[in-house]
Amino acid sequence: xxLGVPMRILEGDDISALCQRGDEQRRVSMLLLGAxxxxxxxxxxxxxxxxxxxxxxxxxxxxALDGLAAAMRGEDFDSAFADLIDREPQLPEHLR
Length: 96
Fold this sequence. Notes:
Layout: E1 5-12, E2 16-21, E3 24-29, E4 41-45, E5 48-53, H1 55-72
Antiparallel strand pairs: 1-2, 1-4, 2-3, 4-5
């Protein structure tokens, strides 16, 4: 299984960018997106930026990853998925 993680661009060009998430910095490929401004949030899969994220979406992904880590440690993780509690799952329009 491969998870995408949101990272913030620190510097870069059309080819690659130095990105950061927490204490980790990583140089990633920007070939699929092209150059993005410093501070932009991008979704990283296998050291490749695949999509630009808005701040709200990046925060939700970060919360979900934190919740997954808490679950793996045997800790409470409900707060990491507050946007899903008491809500019925919704199918995307193309699956209805």
